[in-house]
Write a structure and sequence with these properties.
Blueprint lengths: L1 E3 H12 L1 H10 L3 E3 L4 H6 L4 H7 L9
Antiparallel strand pairs: 1-2
Helix pairs in contact: 1-2
Length: about 60
C-alpha cells in the first residue's frame, strides 16, 4: 500500500514528536510503500499492519 509521505510524517509527529518527524521527512520517499519500506517504518515505530489498519486497508489519496 502506498501512502503519501506527509501522512506518515504526521503519524510519526503524533507518536514520537517533531524531531523524529523531521528526520523521517528527510529520509522517507515521497510515496511510502508500506511493504517495501517496512524497515524504515519500523525505525519510526510504525508497521505495515498498523498503517493498513489505520487506513482501513485502502491506500489514502494524495489529494
Amino acid at each position: 500500500m502506498e501512502v503519501p509521505k506527509a501522512m506518515i510524517v504526521e503519524k510519526i509527529r503524533g507518536k514520537s514528536g517533531a524531531e523524529k518527524a523531521n528526520e523521517a521527512d528527510k529520509e522517507l520517499p515521497d510515496k511510502v510503500d508500506t511493504e517495501t519500506d517496512a524497515a524504515l517504518l519500523e525505525k519510526y515505530g510504525l508497521s505495515h499492519e498498523d498503517l493498513s489498519e489505520d487506513f482501513g486497508g485502502q491506500a489514502p489519496s494524495a489529494g
